[in-house]
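Pair request: fold both.
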Amino acid sequence: MSLDDFKSIYSMEWGHRILGRAIGLAFVLPLAYVALRRRLARSLRAPLLSMAGLLGAQGALGWYMVQSGLEPANLPRRTVCS
């Protein structure tokens, strides 16, 4: 893989991560504001909190996938030829 290929992939992954965080914050912050003001209809509490939980779970799963790929057992071994 060339450096330009790596930069392209890294840029896409970085953008994807930032977009996910922005979407999560755009959903959770207004939800928290409305919930704390007690303006959230009782019938919407469980579905909206469940959706917020699923957003968090999706972020945690993405973090786990990246983290598990960085374990030494999963990284390719580099050997030095003498």
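--- second member of the pair ---
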Amino acid sequence: MTESLRQRNEAFLRRLNRLPIEPNPALMKQAEERAQSAQNRIADAITDFAGSMWFVYIHIVWFGLWIGLGAEKYPYGLLTMIVSLEAIFLSTFVMISQNRADAKQQVIADQQWETVQEEDQQNRELLELSNQILALTKEVHAAQRRANAVQPTSKTPT
């Protein structure tokens, strides 16, 4: 019996793992709003590229060629300046990316707070219904006790 139950649970979990994961609707809405701005699309594209391995590979090739082909003499002043400017811009894009992540977290938090508020209201309504059911039940029991008290108890001869 337990083996059969275990097999059914495993089959259920396999089917469950094949279900598509739906994205959070609030995050989808936020992404659509963000995509409407050209500035946001550009910033997202740059941060996506700067956070990829292609970015690293391009820089490895670039620095290797710069130094290997002798584009300038040591201590590579121009390369240092270019890399410094690039670092300034990339740090700005990192902050933009962090702001985007914070905005996503805020959207999720707002949605969760709204859900908590709705659930709280539902709980209040359920509590009120439960209290009404309890009051009605007490009234039914009291009416039944009164009816039993009014009716004479008949004793049948044995």
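Observation on the second member. The radius of gyration is 35 Å.
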